């Protein structure tokens, strides 16, 4: 976050380093497990490296395409660009690209593996619902993700889950296709046995990476709330935006929510119906809304603005 005026967060930095360190151990165990299960070491390295490079360099394009979002110029969205220009000047950071997704789901997200590839995207549903200061607060929240570089960490951290999920499905299909558990003529393990071992190793790796990234995701949202509140000096506007978005989410058709659900870890607020907020905090992408609002109220009191 060199050069940025967003409030630094040592807790977030520590958690990102710890998460990447633990994931590196999971990666190593994952590769070793697949090799021991009978896969060629070169095949494993090729699969892992291929997914890693693709996820890292194409993360912004994948996210924009999946959300149906398009990059917009200052001429196409002058008001939105003006807000981001002002916030980037306040934060003393490079301006990211700007995108708009045509969906009624009120949300925003940041993506990209570095500042040059970063994109701040908002939905048309969000812009229709929020007042100017509220939208500014949400955009400050998303810009802080870019400045803190946690978007990059989340992109890297999420790729192991993609690889593990792919190998789990491939292993199950291969086991069903080959059938039987008999060995080959050399008394080696049957292909189905190897496939099931790959499934087991991949499932364990996916579960561990899932829990690690979820824990980081919850903390980074609190960190972004704090950074945005201090930068704009109006935490109440961020609280108002959060209340509006989560309140209106229950009015969005379930079909629309399910379409964008894979992006919940990157959204400003999770795209879930009210029932979704009762999920265990062990697997939640965001902290409870009450916790986020309480933190913003504390910051308001610190700034002398009242609750």
Features:
307 residues; mainly alpha; four-stranded mixed β-sheet; 64% helix
Characterise the protein shown here.
With 307 residues, the protein is mainly alpha-helical. It is built from 10 helices and 4 strands, in the order ααβαβββααααααα. Strands 1-2-4-3 form a 4-stranded mixed β-sheet, sandwiched between helices. Helix 1 (10-36) packs across helix 2. The longest helix is centred in the C-terminal third of the chain and has 42 residues, at 191-232. Residues 74-298 form the Peptidase M48 domain.
Layout: helices, strands, pairs:
Layout: H1 10-36, H2 41-66, E1 69-71, H3 78-91, E2 97-101, E3 108-111, E4 119-123, H4 124-129, H5 132-148, H6 150-178, H7 191-232, H8 235-249, H9 254-260, H10 289-302
Following the backbone from N to C, one meets helices and strands in this order, namely HHEHEEEHHHHHHH
Measured between the Cα atoms of the first and last residue, the distance is: 30 Å
Main beta sheet: strand number and arrangement? 4 strands, mixed
Q: What's the Cα radius of gyration?
A: 21 Å
Shape category: elongated
DSSP strand content: 5-15%
* Extended strand count: 4
Please tell me the overall pLDDT: 83
Number of helices: 10
How many independent structural domains?
1
Derived from helix and strand composition plus strand pairing, the structural class reads mainly alpha
GO molecular function: metalloendopeptidase activity; zinc ion binding
EC number: 3.4.24.-
Pfam families: Peptidase_M48
Keywords: Cell membrane, Hydrolase, Membrane, Metal-binding, Metalloprotease, Protease, Transmembrane, Transmembrane helix, Zinc
